[in-house]
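Students often ask what a holo structure prediction actually looks like on paper. The answer is less mysterious than it sounds. You provide the chain, you provide the ligand, and the output is a string of discrete structure tokens encoding the 3D arrangement of the protein together with heme C.
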Amino acid sequence: MNEKRLHRDASKSRTLRTFADFEERGPEAIMRAVQTEDFPVIKQFVAPVLALAVIGAAHAVDLSDAQRAEIEARIKPVGDVCLQGESCGGAPAAAAAAGGAAAVIDGEGTYNMACMACHATGAGGAPKVGDLAAWEPRIAKGVEALHNSGLNGVAGTSMMAKGGRADLSDEAIIAAVDYMIANSQ
Ligand code: HEC
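The corresponding structure tokens follow.
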């Protein structure tokens, strides 16, 4: 092994010298070159490889960010629908309507909130819930008539339309009437 030849080949082509030596004599030639003043040549060969690796890694990160952003953008609308609605395929408006209906179906809750003040105490002559005798003749008029009284009130009495709660939905009032009837017969 002679270092002169290494220098001569290096003057021709540094990369060729490195690969040729590696093929010819194996890693030992490279190690020997590293120990000589040719060491910077090895670094010059390695540096571009490292640079390519870094560039490749940076590119991979960029791609990953882009993919993540794309996935998030794609998932977001679906997630919103799923959060607001019953199912991912449902329209938000329909889901909101379903949620509202679920809230007003609570007849007991509506009664406690809007009707109990009079119908638990009998204030103003209101038939008390649970007073079977007071409710029997009213129930005899039919559920439709009682729903109508709940919605429109009873003229000439303190039973106002919707018990004075015009902000409540018809469904809420009907549910409250049903609750009152169910607990008064
Ligand atoms: C301010 C007091 C008051 C409130 C509040 C009130 N009611 Fe009444 N309600 C009355 C009175 C008084 C009567 C009896 C009217 C009559 O003489 O037939 C009555 C009667 C009724 C009747 C029977 C009507 C009939 O045709 O026999 C229903 C049903 C009824 N109320 C439902 C409701 C519901 C539902 C609510 C709550 C959303 C409510 N009320 C809130 C005072 C009230």
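The chain has nine helices and no strands.
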